[in-house]
Structures are given as structure tokens and as C-alpha cells.
């Protein structure tokens, strides 16, 4: 049986990917930020997950105003790195797990979640930066990846509660897949960030810290946070945090915090990272 063993969440700030690609991670501006991922890099190499369901948002790379899927699941064999204006990031192609992805798509759709099925898609920093943070610069990514793209760019994004319920449905789907697979689920994006307008650079550490605390102390309370609270407290792009609730909803009520990291600034945002063991 496939089983979800852990959940990982991290910000996906593109500047972190550029720092890795350009060999700048030990520079004074970046060193402390990257130090917070060392624990996870060691832990991931011990865990050796077979498959990662990687929840992220596309930033007008694969989708634009022509097509805006609320929830899209990648069922392809392979995904290339998107060109976001500076050429594609120099990272390995992302290898999918088509059988499990189609199984999750089928289960979730029959479970009344209307997933969009994607068979051809370039993946942008939302997906590749978390891989680089957790795995560094390998010749091949050490796990197969199922991209799960969520619209958090164009109003209306899904509610946090809907994301949580989708996470629960993904967990049911994974548990009914007959192959013996160690599966992780990752949520990306956040934490506080507002990239534009008069509040650009907004950082709300107390709110971010409370969000991290509640992932284990009171996760049910996170389900009810309305969109307006994310915008007001964590900035306009803080809404990316609803994707962490897909990750959290896929874990059991007894999930345990193994590691946490919080760093300001990276670009003009707060970087948050947490590792949860399923339970
Ligand atoms: C930036 C972009 C993002 O998509 C994000 O999640 C955080 C930061 C940026 O451009 O700095
Ligand atoms: Fe983003």
C-alpha cells in the first residue's frame, strides 16, 4: 500500500533558486536562510521518498488568463523547467509518477473534487525552488513528483477549508493505491509576502509564527481563516498559504512537528519552512 509518511511546507521565493543556481548560498545575505534547510536535506536523504505530491502555484508560466484551473494535477511522465524570463532554471527535468497521478485524479474526481488533468506542462519556481531547497543540485531529482497546481493568483482562489478537504481526499486516494510507496506531500508558497503596491515588503512575524504553531497545535482553526485575513495579515501573496492546508489536510490529526525554520528577508518576503511527520 502507498502511504503518506510526512508533510513538508516551504516558501518558494524565486531568489532562493537563483542563489542556488548562481552559487551564492554561502554569501552573508543568504547563509542563515539556507542553514535552516540543512536539517531537512539530511532528513530527506534518510527518508528517501518514492513520490512527492508537490502542491504549488503556477505564476503565469503554464497558465495565464486564458486558462485558470482551480486545482490541476500533473499526470505526465516528465515536466521541463519553465522559462520565466531568464531562461529555464538549470535543474533536472521533473519525472512524474503517471500511474499514481491518474489514480489520485480518478479518486478525487469521483470523490467530487473537479480536478483538471494536465499531461503537458512546464513547471516554474513554485515547484522547482522547493526541490532545490530540499535536494540541492543533483543530476536527477531523487523522487518522482506529482505536480498539483492551485490557483492562488486570480480571484477567487479556493478557500482554506476546500484545500484541507482536498488534502483529505488525496490521502484517501494514496491509501488505496496498491503499490508499496513512501509518499510525501509538500505545500509551498507563503509566508508573509506582498510583492507590489504600497504595502510591498509587508512582514507579519507574529501571524506567521501563529500559523506555524497551529499546524500542529490547532490545525482545525486554520481551516476557517477567510481570504481577507490572509491578505490583511500576510499580504496579497500571503494567500499562497492556503496550499499548506492541502498538505496538512492530507496528514492525520496527530501529525508531529520535526523541524521549523523562519527567516526574513529573502527578496522582500518572509521564508517559512516546516516538516511534519504523519500521525
Ligand atoms: C517572490 C515571488 C513568489 O512567487 C513568491 O512566492 C515569493 C516571492 C518574489 O518575486 O520575490
Ligand atoms: Fe509564489
TrEMBL record:
Residues 9-271 form the Extradiol ring-cleavage dioxygenase class III enzyme subunit B domain. Gene3D superfamilies: LigB-like. It comes from the Bacteria. Keywords: Dioxygenase, Oxidoreductase. GO terms for molecular function: ferrous iron binding; oxidoreductase activity, acting on single donors with incorporation of molecular oxygen, incorporation of two atoms of oxygen. InterPro entries: Xdiol_dOase_suB. This is Protocatechuate 3,4-dioxygenase. It comes from Allosphingosinicella ginsenosidimutans. The lineage of its organism: Bacteria, Pseudomonadati, Pseudomonadota, Alphaproteobacteria, Sphingomonadales.
